[in-house]
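Entry 14. Ran structure prediction on the chain below.
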Amino acid sequence: MTTSAAARDQHLDELRALMAAHSPPIHALLVPSEDAHQVLTPAARADRNRSDPAGLDCAGLRSEYVSERDKRRQFISGFTGSAGLALITAKEALLWTDGRYFLQATQQLSDRWKLMRMGEDPPVEVWIADNLLDGAVIGIDSWCISVDCAQRYEQAFLKKNQMLLELSSDLIDEVWKERPPNDALPVNVHPVEFTGRSVAEKIKELREKLQHEKATAIVITALDEVAWLYNVRGDDVHYSPVVHSYAIVTLHNAFFYVDKRKVTNEVENYMAGNGIDIREYHMVQPDVSLLSSGQLQGSVVNGNLDVEKDIKGQEHSKIWIDSNSCCLALYSKLRQDQVLMLQSPIALPKAVKNPMELDGLRRAHIRDGAAVVQYLAWLDNQDQTCRVLSHLASPPCMGTPARDPSDAVAPLHGPQPAASTILTAQILHTSGFSAAKSAALHALSDITCRYITSLGRTAVAIAEARGRTEPNLLDLILSFEDHALVGFLGASDPTRPVLHSGVLLELVGFAHLVREVQFMKLRPRMGGWDSHRKGWESFAAAGKEPPLKHVPRWLPCFPEEQEAKLEAKNEDETKARWEVRRVVEVEAEQMSMVNGHCMEGRGAVPEKRGKMQEHYGASGYFSEANGSQKKEHLEKVKLTEVSVSDKLEGFRAEKEHFKSLSFPTISSVGPNAAIIHYSPEANTCAELDADKIYLCDSGAQYLDGTTDITRTVHFGKPSEHEKSCYTAVLKGHIALDAAVFPNGTTGHSLDILARTPLWKNGLDYRHGTGHGVGSYLNVHEGPHLISFRPSARNVPLQASMTVTDEPGYYEDGNFGIRLENVLIVKEADTKFNFGAKGFLSFEHITWAPYQTKLMNTALMTPAEVEWVNLYHSDCRKILASYLNDEEKEWLRKATEPITMSS
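Output, structure tokens:
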């Protein structure tokens, strides 16, 4: 979703016209980040006592990740950070955000906007009360504001008799002409083998809590809480496997409000089997009205009717809502005297993981750590044999020159290569291959991408030839048949059968040389590569079944192993032909580079790729030697913040149970690393620079757990100042990890441990130190957190919670440093037990090395050095089985013991 500054200015003018024309006229419009479900970050979810003078919990700190069509604040302001609140008046446009985004906001906001710094400038409600006239009308979409925020605003507006007006429709939607559609992506049942608890158990426990509070029902609006309660997942919000849905649970009924287009037969049967009524998404508001009047009835009774009658007979039976997540639109349908406003009874059980969830999280983090190690090793030492098909180099079209200029295939850019990598990795895993080396994976992925693209183009052409505006299934089948007979445009010469294409010939030779993928070994047909011979017949034509379930029957039927045995002479001839072809094309490619451009119609050809040191003149991950001069003849081969993050996603995609990233990867070089939640864009991102720090904050969603990890590295010679800052961050990171504390301790009390080493040097950071992590759910999960904010005082840490440990330091315009592990809170084995409280400690479950050359061990204590060495020793043992020999050797070097220096 990108909009030019000029277009945003026009939208701002159109919006002001709508505000003026509204009845009554709107003097100010609040545009929060939230959607209708008020998704909360831990900071906002935990703040219940309204003691935060900065108003941090009411200014857009809830909906960290929302669907594209709900990014209204981003649309109107151009600010892409996940937290923020816009206020538009007749003459001013203001944006509030927190310290993580100050630098980013100054870069993204136009001169028509004013940045309001949370914690430094007045909260939005105070600014309105002080700056707008008496009786001013402030408009808000009642679906996008929580009850707590609305009540706080109304209290502040009493000062000047100002009014908070609930709008019947969102004015942003009226000027957003190209708002993304509401896609109907399917709901998925999340198996008990991953959740550890059944829906029946969870609903039973929830009803017991309702009875304890003398409540007859609860309205659940937070997406992750609905998903957790009903053991369902979805794809409605990028990076968070949730479904746009609501839930209402009474003492004898349960309801699931969702777009029924998303409900499969499996989900329908699953819900019915658990006594849950499925209702249309938009019916939640009228059903809340029925609930308020006692008329909401379900088709299935699965609770205790007698208990409900007893509670209803009492004078003060209640309907439970979480006022920090329930939107004003639903709250307004309830009588105020019947509302019980407490923290959601689901928040804590979701945060305290059960044993199966904990085991899944541990396994997911091990696989994820292996992917990060593979990525760091790849960054440091790219010893790929070929540059063929690597989307990281942004190559032109592949293969030999096309016979006709019209046959040339444009280079593949954008998300397709990464998507193809993920698809190919999943196919490999389904086929029984636990992993494939990255070079081979990307080679296969490029073919996948080009083949699918070509299939689509051919299907469109077939449809148009038959007078249809869009292709149907028949057109796609005909396209498959066409490709099986003729080949495809990505195959260099479309007149040759697919098995003789330049792409596959290059890949076969490549696979033979590197010996990476088992089924891609060199296997020429009898008599060598004769382009005039007829290609192999399909499995269907041969009356055979493919060897693997995912292989279509229309693919060529490869010969049995005994049919492919060749004399050594034939194999040698094929090798010789490959070598001649490789040498000729390398020479041609080098000649075209000398001329300053790639020959028209040419593609990427096989080329030896050197190490990162050769690309960028860098000293590498381990060495501190000077030298960062980029080699001029390799200027075309660039590693950018986006391209390398795509590579990291590819490594993760190879791992078992991978589903998606858990948030947009923060891949940041030098000054960009100082932007705490930097989000690189392909057309503006920086190139890797050996003279600058590289910070990578990333994570993934696996079926058995959610991950979040940050490592900071330097591929050149870091300055003493950079080493000092890195070491201070590391010392704080270790101090929190090693903490032992009594039960009842909050994250507010622990936050100082991570900051003290920085404070001693007059340094600090503007974000919290830790947040909870979901189990294949939101990567940022409450209600607990580790932070300097007052809200961190509200929820003590408990055994079996997860929390991150991520101190940092950021110098605007220079660099940023952050280190992050995920921790599990566990019971501590202490010698004594003062006051019989019991004590807690942490177990780190993230595994990836810290860069030792960035450490100044003279600033570290013996205990800190020992901690690093023990952690690195565990890394080697735990990750070894997931790495190949080269990666193991790299990890061995990266985790060599460090010693104290004077």
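Residues 804 and 822 are 4 Å apart (CA to CA). Will compare against last week's run tomorrow.
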